[in-house]
Design goal:
It is a single chain. The chain is built from 4 helices and 3 strands; from the N terminus they run αβααββα. A hairpin with a 2-residue loop joins β2 and β3. It is an alpha+beta fold. It starts with a helix and ends in a 9-residue tail after the last helix. α1 packs across α2 (19-29) and α1 packs across α4 (74-105). InterPro entries: Metal_resp_DNA-bind_regulator, Tscrpt_reg_PadR_N, WH-like_DNA-bd_sf, WH_DNA-bd_sf.
Length: 114
């Protein structure tokens, strides 16, 4: 799963959001690493809705413009949980390897005290 998709699903796990709210929440959750443009976001939302991962919660008119709120669907919550677990296992494996590398690759001091 690409990071923008993961972050959209993560943002929607909290509460239903409209487009600008999603853009803002994804930027906040990713510490600014993921910056969604409206065209990219709405294309992704269309795909996620078609896949049954996200659903339209409600629509309202604000200042003469339609504002659509999206929510995480059950399929999206299941996929997000599975992806989170996959990433957790990858982090655990990498952390274990780095610990092994640190111990094997640690420089040795010769003579004297450090």
């Amino acid at each position: 799963m690409r990071e923008p998709t993961f972050m959209i699903l993560t943002a929607l796990a909290g509460e239903p959001l409209h487009g600008y709210g999603l853009i803002t929440e994804v930027a906040r959750l990713s510490d600014g690493r993921v910056s969604l443009r409206p065209g990219t976001l709405y294309g992704a939302l269309d795909r996620l809705v078609d896949a049954g991962l996200v659903a339209v919660e409600r629509e309202e008119v604000v200042d003469g413009r339609l504002r659509r709120y999206y929510r995480l669907a059950e399929g999206g919550a299941d996929l997000l949980a599975a992806e989170t677990e996959r990433m957790r296992r990858n982090v655990a494996a990498a952390t274990a390897r780095l610990k092994t590398r640190t111990h094997r690759g640690a420089p040795r001091l010769s003579g004297g005290t450090a």
